[in-house]
Amino acid sequence: MDPERYTADEMMTVAAARALRDGQACFVGIGLPSRAANLARRLHAPGLVLIYESGTIDTKPAELPLSIGDGVLADAALSVVSVPEIFNYWLQPGRIDVGFLSGAQLDRFANINTTVIGDYREPDVRLPGSGGAPEIAASCREVIVVMRHQMRAFVERVDFVTSVGHGSGPKDRRLLGLRGAGPVRVITDLGVLEPDPESAELVLTALHPGVSVEQVRAETGWDLQVAAELSATPPPSAQELSVLRGMRTVGS
Amino acid sequence: MPLADAVADLVHDGETVAFEGFTHLIPFAAAHEAIRQRRRGLTLARLTPDLVYDQMVGAGCATKLVFSWGGNPGVGSLHRIRDAIMTGWPVPLAIEEHSHAGLANRYVAGASGLPFAVLRGYAGTDLPLHTPTVSTVTCPFTGERLAAVAALNPDVAVVHAQRADRAGNVQFWGITGVQKEAVLAARRALVTVEEVVDELTPVPGAIVLPHWVLSAVAVAPRGAAPSYAHGYYDRDNAAYRAWDAVSRDRAAFTGWLERLRGATAAAS
Q1: Of A129, B14, B84, B178, which one has the greatest count of Cβ atoms within 10 A?
Q2: B102: which residues sit within 8 A by CB, 6+ positions away?
């Protein structure tokens, strides 16, 4: 037994980092995705190419950025391009392998909401909005979502479609002309969800250590199905935890 | 040109103004001058409205916000903007919302002298339902349906740069965002700079804007603080974190605003 204790957030970040492969080009959202992507680069994927919407290409920041446009990202980048260029030349043609995103709400077809909770004109909560996410979700070869698993966030249907996952079923992406595969995995602090190949609906495919199916269902706003082969996430190794805990955010 | 004169000459009530900057080189000094001069009825455009638009909206300068991501990065919400949208304090604020790719391409079209730009975007999202400057266009060569966004040509663009030479040519580097496009899309452009130098020696990745596309250059040392100017000073992350408490509370914000305005009265 590993005597090391760790938090559910740490398990989520480690599981997300493991999902990235060495040599991939990854378009990174700020927050949870950025932490996990930088962890992957420090562990098994030193050749992971990190790209941020501020225009920094292949950046290797020594500290985690607080914002998407921090100076550390520019200092440590192979190249820095303008915002129109990062979207038009780098993201749009489909040359990025993985889009790494988070959100405030996510639904059973992995559509993402970062715009409003409630009605658009009279929202209960006004969120930051789109940023680069809609086109990241549309154009990367595949998308991985990292977010905390809570009832209020994992909903039957998002209040606002900021970024399209699988729309309302398996044919929607093709009908909409979206060329990437869309979300292939949703990694949470409880487990992993993946779209069913037939229905495109998210199903539970892995549980993190110590988490039960009932617990995940209790935090999911739709009738969550469980994959025939439910796997168990290996707990964080001592090395994964020590590298994760050693990462500092700029100015903190 | 002194900054106060440049803002008075170039930024007029009721106009569309883009104070651009993508985390880096945000033109705080110029925006604070617009607050002191009590500009009203502005349409404020920017991909990433952060503290400076929160401050302008809270001060009552704006009636509309055109944006693609509004927040205090890594900290939380912009409470003055949220208050204006949801309760109309101190004045109602209309919004026009895009994605980064869409709004960036609106500036590209504006800078290119085209009526619209084409991109792969917005398909299947709810944004086109609420944003009249997003539409679709059919490719005349392939028949493919693509997103179209209307050109954005601000009345004035305001940006901050590291330096200018004595002729008024401007150079900036690091994360350069969408400032070149915003300046070239705008009818007038005001640039504040950290310093004036004899010669703009080459810097890797730098953008140079020639003096003849700019209306005015004003020297404003630390004019991007608390954001940063690459090679000059770092981002003051503590100030961004501290803003949250000011922004949350109308009284705390009003106190901040009085101090900002008082600072000029004392100086003049």
Answers
A1: B178
A2: B68, B119, B121, B122, B127, B134, B147, B149
